[in-house]
Amino acid sequence: MRAKPSAFWKTAAIFVIGAGSGILASVQVIPAGSVGSGTEQGPGPAGPGAVASFDPGAAGPSAGPSQVAALDDGPSGLKCAPGLNGGATDKGVTATAINLATTVVRSGPGAAFLADVQIAMEAVVNKVNHAGGICGRQLVVTYRDDGWNSSLGQKYLRNFMQDEVFAIPVGPSSEGLNAVAKDGSGEIDEEGIPVVGTDGMLISQYTDPWFWPVAVSTASSARLMVIQAAKKLGITDFAIVFDKNYKFGVEAAQAFNAEVKRQTGKDVEGFNEANTCKANFCGVEAAQPTYATEINRFTGGGPNSLVAMFLEPATALTWMGNSDSPKPDADANALVWGAQPLFTRDFGVKCQSACDGVTVWTGYRPNIEEYQYEPALRTYVADLRATDPNVDVFNQFAQGGYVGMQLLVEALQKVGPHLTRDRLRAVLDSMTLKTGLTVDPKLRWAEENHYAAACMQGFTINYKGTFGGWRTGATSCDPHPEYGTN
What we know:
The chain is of the alpha/beta class. It has 14 helices and 16 strands.
């Protein structure tokens, strides 16, 4: 296995477990050797009320009734125990480890909502490994920060495939993943490497047979906003501002316009394929110091209107901070709605009164109001804080990373000791996951349908002199997630 450059880092955690508390004592960051050169140990269950479907100690085919009946047991005599699990059964698998690798976003514009995803992933890894791993194998995850850069992410993912890791978990950095998916270079399919539990929301993650997303697609989120506003709230004027630097913004704009045309018979005013800012359709360059020029061109807002923001947080803060940008007005039925990247505590606090009344949409059940008392949410919050006390437990992409890792863990348990990529794919393509953390009560995948989630819920920012959190709002579902951006 090819050695990695010295700049390649792997996290290794040292924990002190006292009185069942699972408190993190210290964390070291060490240079990694080759993939699989160590294990990641972590705290055990950090709180009561774990969801029954997520049992880190479950053992292979006997883990539950939802085991895929058609999956054979593999070679006879194998058991879910060290030394009896068949050893090296596939690329990246040894007798003691399942080697995984992924690109993350710890720098650049995307870090504002994607940096905490790695912490959420580690929370699940820690729990699984402390419980003994999966069929005698520890989960070993290597992370590489690509800054949400497509070409850099593609390079790192190619390296992972050359190093023969077993699978790519969660894949927080969607831009690089998009480059190696079926509609890009197709390298994921050529290698036949599973990409499990993604939350990047790009259409390529739903149409590629080697990806299993847990999120509602960006296209669906744009579409369901229009459906909710038009059919339930009587909105007649639709506008969108979006980040044209990144794929998620462009896909949102395409899907938003397509649904507006279905609902009203015409395009969004100013719609153009060049994604320039004109009338009610406004593509902007990310992370600019001001958007005064674009706001002067933008005509969205006013009575019976919806302005949808598909922006990363820094760009949205600058946009909303301009006194002339459209603001919510309940009396005029003027709505300003934001996509899931804006559902972080930091955004709510920093946007201040400009975002009072802005609704942000998520495919997960956040730790607020009635949800915070549910066992699944209590366990999620405890697990994250045991891994990093400073993590934003309200960050919806972190929650997606946690759910994505739950999917991978449960699928690995179902495969059992004879672990291969093809067997994992067979399990995932007939998988049902119930975590208690998603707006959709259950996520289901099938061989020809990886649109497992289609429902989101809106939560309205409350700012009255200080940030007062979010207020629970309506749920909306996309009846046709398969439409993609069309």
